[in-house]
Amino acid sequence: MSRKIVILGTGGTIAGTGPAGSGSYTAAQLTAEQLVGSIPALQNAAGGGLLVQEVARIDSKDMTHAVWQWLAQRCLAHLADGTVGGIVITHGTDTLEETAWLLHELLPADKPVVLTCAMRPATALSPDGPQNLLDAVTLAAHPEAHGVLVVAAGVVHGAREVTKVHPQRLDAFASPDGGPLGWVQGGEVRWAHATAPQPAAPRCGALLLEPAFMAPQWPRVEIILSHAGSDGALVDWLVAGGVRGIVVAATGNGTLHEALQAALRRAVSAGVTVRLASRCGEGRISPVTDQPWRDAGGLSPVKARISLMLELMQASDSFGARPDGLSG
Ligand code: ASP
Question: Do 53 and 81 form a contact (C-beta atoms < 8 A)?
């Protein structure tokens, strides 16, 4: 028997409205029920029926840790329900890749959790949201789909690679290096490789049940960019303010302005965990072996920040050690 698909609304341009024919709109105006109700084809694609819930109604540029806490807990509860076959999350495009990565780090991967979005509001002459949502439900109902996926403009992306690469065009997402996982075309899912990607256990799954995850404050982790003229003053300021972790978006293959590097060494001495990502949009930096910090394992700076927050939460809860094994 087909299982139902849960649609969790969070807002975004897909639920945005504006004056007909005008380029302006406000994100996150339609309720999840209004959005889903405007697309009758979703019921057929779901097979076993739809359950629609609104988790938040925000422009995703304003995403908060509190919404993430609630969203992750709702997903966990639905995934544990034997009558649910998969989850679709409607989301703004701006921080979609961050939410996807957070959920990938936390949720069991045996059922699909599919994020989708739109670049045009629901009131546009030709909105992209309805097709994206239909594709997302099709993907979530597919028997081989599992784990956290993103579908936009007919392309299926994995949570690790997906990134917004364009501020305007409908096909605004890419999976640099790895490429897409597949496509949804004419109501059919086509995987890019011979088989669907295999499920893997989430790295931080146990954290969802720990008090640190639901705490009102998450460990403060900030992103700093290395650039011409960097002087490290921002790092010193953050350390003085009690930052717990810093992700550096380094130049090229993990290189840092010497003044910034000196400030980061001071931060590590003060007990701050530092991770090195690259500000290049593609590729992976060589492993770091000669510094008191690690590289971010090929994650973009925004995803590295999420992983470091989760690791710091684990370290502060029942798990013990500092995430990078350093003392202090
Ligand atoms: N600012 C919007 C959001 O992220 C943009 C979008 O959805 O395309 O919610």
Answer: no
CB of 129 within 6 A of ligand 1: the answer is no
CATH 3.40.50.300 matches 4-191: no
Give yes or no for residue 13 CB within 6 A of ligand 1.
Answer: yes
Where in the chain are the domains?
Answer: 4-191, 219-314
The CATH number for 219-314, chosen from 2.60.40.1220, 3.40.50.1010, 2.40.160.20, 3.40.50.40, is 3.40.50.40
13 is catalytic: yes
SS3 40: coil
Running along the chain, 328 residues long, what does each successive block of 10 average in pLDDT? 94 96 91 96 93 98 98 98 98 98 97 98 96 98 97 98 98 96 97 88 94 96 98 98 98 98 98 98 93 96 98 74 44
- Three-class SS of 119-165: CCCCCCCCCCHHHHHHHHHHHHCCCCCCEEEEEECCEEEECCCCEEC
Q: Name the active-site residue from 13, 90, 93, 251.
A: 13
Residue 154 CA to ligand 1 centre (angstroms) = 18
| pLDDT tens-digit series, residues 49-96 | 999 999 999 999 999 999 999 999 999 999 999 999 999 999 999 999
